[in-house]
Amino acid sequence: MSDESRKIRILLVKHVIEGHDRGVKFVLGKLRDEGFETIYSLYRLPEEIVTQAQQEDVDVIGVTTSSTVYQVHIPEVVRCLEENKMKDDVFLLVGGLVGGEDEKNLLGMGVDAVYGPGKDLGTLPPLIHEFKRSKSNKVSS
I need a labelling partner for 125 at 20 to 30 A (CA). Which of 25, 28, 36, 79 fits? Predict the structure, then answer.
């Protein structure tokens, strides 16, 4: 199957100690309804996210959190993506309870999008498709 005809693959993960999973499961269903192939997983270490992303050959990693663990884990995820030369090829999404100033910090460190409470999920599929198109254009040019 060519890269263009393959469904966009999305890995959505939450930390194993997080009890709250209602939001991520809602997002998972919405993305699946939009035609994306979705994978849901738990993780303990940021390295596990990137390892699974490699194994699953995903286009998007979505990390959800209902605590401030993202302040430590997301920079590590970005570092692991960079070390594995995946950062330019994987759309990194953070969702959950993320504060306003933290959203700016996350975007500044390499996160592609932040979706918290109240954010319009209808805007996420077009963002992902645009990322995939721009990635395909880089490869073909």
Answer: 79
Just give the CATH number of 9-140: 3.40.50.280
What residue type is assigned to position 10 of the chain?
I
- Alpha carbon of 102 to those of 45, 46, 66, 73, 105: distances in Å? 21, 18, 13, 13, 5
DSSP string of the chain?
--TTTSPPEEEEEEETT----HHHHHHHHHHHHTT-EEEEEEESSHHHHHHHHHHHT-SEEEEEESSTTHHHHHHHHHHHHHHTT-TTTSEEEEEES--HHHHHHHHHTT-SEEE-TT--GGGHHHHHHHHHHHHHHHHH-
Residue ranges per structural domain of the chain = 9-140
* Residues 52-93: tens digit of each pLDDT: 999 999 999 999 887 777 788 899 999 999 999 999 999 999
Structure confidence at residue 2 as a pLDDT band (50, 70, 90): very low
Global pTM exceeds 0.85: yes
